[in-house]
Amino acid sequence: MSGDAILTINAGSSSIKFSAHVAGRAPHELGRGQVERLGPAASLTVHAEGASAERAEIGPADHAQALRAILEHLGPLLHGRRVAGVGHRVVHGGPDHAAPVRLDDAAIVELARLEPLAPLHQPYNLSGVRAARAAFPDALQLACFDTAFHRGHAWEHDTFALPSSYHARGIRRYGFHGLSYQFIAGDLARRFPDLAAGRVIVAHLGNGASMCALRGGRSLSSTMGFTALDGLAMGTRSGQIDPGVLLYLMQNDGMDADALSRLLYRESGLKGLSGISHDMRRLLASDAPEAAQAISYYVTRIRHEIGALTADLGGLDGLVFTAGVGQNSDVIRAMACDGMGWLGLSLDARANAAGATEIGAGRVRVLVLPTDEEAVIAQAVSDALG
């Protein structure tokens, strides 16, 4: 299969990311791109290796139309190569999948049953699978799961305090953003092996946000649980909330499951707290007190989870910031570490402002590392192709 091409597709609720690689033991990236702002004014950006990014306005587009646009613009990336495999980010793999899975009809039906557990992602992930199978019927189609990295947690980090029969039914903590954490764990092992062998918290801070405690490069515990709602406040998702609030809204406001789902997944988080935007960049640029309050809540939850995950680990050797907000916002990084000196956690203000890789000034090492979920997916496809 060497010389053939591998595609990766990461279909989210409002965007689709993709990349192309040359198949091989260590897949070489040919380029990547994404469709943003799905809906009335979608746009496509393609960045081929060694070339400037090209941008095209698609106009009104749903996921199916966006995928067709991506397929039409793959030529400059593939240079005539045959597509031998397509790797898909699939957010939820349920309790049984700790490794990538070949996607046939039965696998797609099985994964569709998990859509209620990841309604912002799973249906769109699977729409990408169906489109790719139609476009490349002879190619290997492989699902790579965001939950897989967290399989193997100790029971106490995996269960809820419900009757044990619920855990047996699959109602348990799954954890998400596993492809990102897998990449960071591998990057630490290559570049910072001493730190990778220790106790590290990784903060994946993007529109979706979570944190993971790593011991020796393996997931010990995560802030996300049964769905991608738990833990940190996110762009439009609530994060941690007392379930009694939901019972109250059902009993007193007459909210049903659909109304609660809209509230928790689409109208809460930074968007709900600020009433302005889900975009951290807009909130940081705003003078509105509601923006400052939303940011304050956001970083308070981060500090809370740093403390909790450190307790799980029995100490802390390193903290890694990654993803859109974590990698790009020195302000959020500084606020998240403010007052954490008791833990040995402090920042070098100049290094932080410059976006350096190493920004810590205390006993605990603090790193800023880019993540690359597409690289993890491409490697999985290459391994499956043999």
Brief summary:
The chain is α/β, with parallel strands linked by helices.
Which features would summarize this protein structure in a list?
5-stranded mixed β-sheet; Nucleotidyltransferase, domain 5; single chain; alpha/beta; 13 strands; 386 residues; 40% helix
Overview of the structural elements:
The protein has 386 residues and is α/β, with parallel strands linked by helices. The chain has 2 domains: 5-145, ATPase, nucleotide binding domain (Nucleotidyltransferase, domain 5), CATH 3.30.420; 190-368, ATPase, nucleotide binding domain (Nucleotidyltransferase, domain 5, 2-Layer Sandwich), CATH 3.30.420.40. It contains 17 helices and 13 strands. It has helices at 63-72, 75-78, 105-112, 122-135, 155-158, 164-168, 178-191, 193-196, 243-252, 257-266, 269-274, 280-285, 289-313, 323-328, 330-337, 349-354, 373-385; strands at residues 5-11, 16-22, 28-36, 39-48, 54-61, 83-90, 101-102, 140-145, 199-205, 209-215, 218-222, 318-322, 365-368. Strands 5-4-3-2-1-6-8-7 form an 8-stranded mixed beta sheet, with helices on both faces. Strand 10 and strand 11 (218-222) form a beta hairpin. It is globular and about 55 Å long.
Please write out the topology.
Elements (H helix, E strand, L loop, with lengths): L4 E7 L4 E7 L5 E9 L2 E10 L5 E8 L1 H10 L2 H4 L4 E8 L10 E2 L2 H8 L9 H14 L4 E6 L9 H4 L5 H5 L9 H14 L1 H4 L2 E7 L3 E7 L2 E5 L20 H10 L4 H10 L2 H6 L5 H6 L3 H25 L4 E5 H6 L1 H8 L11 H6 L10 E4 L4 H13 L1
Parallel strand pairs: 1-6, 6-8, 9-12, 12-13
Antiparallel strand pairs: 1-2, 2-3, 3-4, 4-5, 7-8, 9-10, 10-11
